[in-house]
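User: structure tokens for this one?
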Amino acid sequence: MTHANAPLTIQGRRRLERCRTRPITHVAAETGVSRACLSKWKSRYDQYGEAGLQDRL
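Assistant:
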């Protein structure tokens, strides 16, 4: 379950694949998420794939 203030849901995190071709800063500004948050999710995806997009318990 995603917490109430989470800026991204699991589905939203999947849409962040546009970071592959565009700068993280630009994608972060478009999605309303901080660059640091976006970098964290991209790093998890790069390391763990689809499983990295799941919320940690």
